[in-house]
Amino acid sequence: MKGDIIARAVIIGVNDYYVGLAYIGDSLLCNTIPLKTRKFALSDLHETCLKSRGRIVLRLDYDINQQDLEISNLLVDLFEGKVSPRKNIRLYPVSGKRGLLLETLKNIPRGKVTTYRALGTLLKMHPRTVGGYIASNPFPLIIPCHRVIKSDLSLGGYSYGQLIKGNLLLREGVDIDIETGKISPSDVLGYKDLLKIIPLRVLV
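The structure assignment produced for this chain is given below.
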């Protein structure tokens, strides 16, 4: 235990879902998407924290506060494709190039996607590096890593599977060809499009 990061963990039932949240102080360390069982949410929270933050000791807390409720309800709204006002959520920092990438992803708007290659060009990273960083996103849905696809306009990978990724994008209004599984080019932001929407402070 000595030297390990200890985080407060909560599992919250919202409608027919369970959401896992972990905190350091008042800052959200990592979260799950809405899942179908409490056991699955706890297991996935462990996995998400491990792959995004390294070794974490989760201490389960059964006392739910207002912040827990607000974040879990936001996650369910995002999962169901509802337009939900953004809460001012304090996120535990992610450093280096991975942090820069996650900050960039916040600016990909609902109903649009971009590609690993476009992000790599923008941030001077190899597309595979982009994919690796996205796979270890500690804040799924809050930071919309599901809005990144392959250059051939197919969905690409997602920690929770392609079916969930495709459903998330459909709920957000992205046009996906049912036969080919590819995204309509009109919904894809290229490198030049990203330059127009990413704040300069992110790129400097």
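Interim note for the steering committee: The chain is about 40% helix and 15% strand. Residues 96-203 form a domain with the Arc Repressor Mutant, subunit A fold (CATH 1.10.10.10).
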